[in-house]
Amino acid sequence: MKVMGRYHKPSALFIDDAHDLHGQTLRALKPMIEKTGRRGSRLTLVLAGHPRLRNDLRRPAREETGARTTVFEFEGIQGQQRRYITWWLEHSAPEVDPRDIVTDDALRVLAERLSTPLQIEHYLTRVLEQAYRVGEKPVTPALVEKALAPDMHDLEPTLTRYGYNIPALAELLNIRQAEVRAFLHGQLPPGRTADLHQQLLAVGLPLGEGLGAIENRSAIG
User: Fold this and answer.
1) What would the CATH number be for the domain defined by 81-147?
2) If pLDDT is split at 50, 70 and 90, which confidence band does 209 have?
3) If exposure means fewest CB atoms within 10 Å of the residue's CB, which of 93, 150, 152, 185 is most exposed?
């Protein structure tokens, strides 16, 4: 605040991974802005994080902070995965036609199963390494399926991508971390699993195939 007062210029503070901010830290941001305003400075806070941040700011307990925020949602490359994979291949090997590296069917599988640039680069690298080891060119859908993690769309990795690790889920659901682990591993009774599922849906979490796998394991157990 002293530096801001010295230069008398509007300032912006960027906080990355803001979904992991402690609740007390989030609440403390409001008086921080107010103090700088009373000193004649203008401070804007930009919080960047997983969708969990948006959901937390919408909770009644965070209303004092959430009501003062404007939320911008970035969909990234959703719907453009195939174009991104093609672009990635073209720039990695500009002298080679991407269809000579990955077949159209394999490209379709990759685009359907992967959703973020980081995910695409990670798994596409694994696919190409595997293809090199077995001497397969171009890459086929069968090889893609072998290289992709079979549980990548299960409930736990899906929730992690949204910023919800085990401690965050325990706080959100107001349960012990041991019960969260049992829920993620399909070890709870079906009724309890359904109850926690409804609570997660109520806060806007996308639960699809991952939950189905959890419920099936619970029923079998």
Assistant:
1) 1.10.8
2) very low
3) 150
